[in-house]
Amino acid sequence: YVLFAIHLSTRKVEILGVTGHPDEQFMVQTVRNTTGEDGWLRQVGAKYLIHDRGANFSTRWKGALQEAGIKTVTIPARSPNLNAFAERWVRTVKRECLRRCWFLDYGGLCRVLHEFTRDHYNVERPHQGKGNIPLKPYARAPAQQCVGRFRASQV
DSSP states of 69-136 as a string? Predict the structure, then answer.
């Protein structure tokens, strides 16, 4: 199970946690991690968190978010179009990343998901909803200027 969040105005995705068993303790710990002083929800200035009706989004989880000043909004049942950005990201990560990899352990899955999200999806990949430009332009290494003469050597 992968718990992720999307900042809707920037379309930036953050992996909040990965686990084989998403119990209430895991969910509450992810709230603590993301709403702390250096937490991602704090950094993006989140005021609302929209989520589906999954059983993992418990009252204790919602309470932890409210303590951090973030209001939770539950989408109506059977309405995937109200969660279109999340549905699209799931489709994209499956098609462009997960179907191309074999994972031998939990660490490999976490590494691939974080790298895909941090380096590719949030930086390199162009997004149609944002005018086909990457979310955050990345700086390529400048082309090195050739100085002097080159001569091919024979081996």
Answer: T-EEEEPPTT-GGGGHHHHHHHHHHHHHTGGG---SSHHHHHHHHHHIIIIIIIIISEEGGGTSEESS
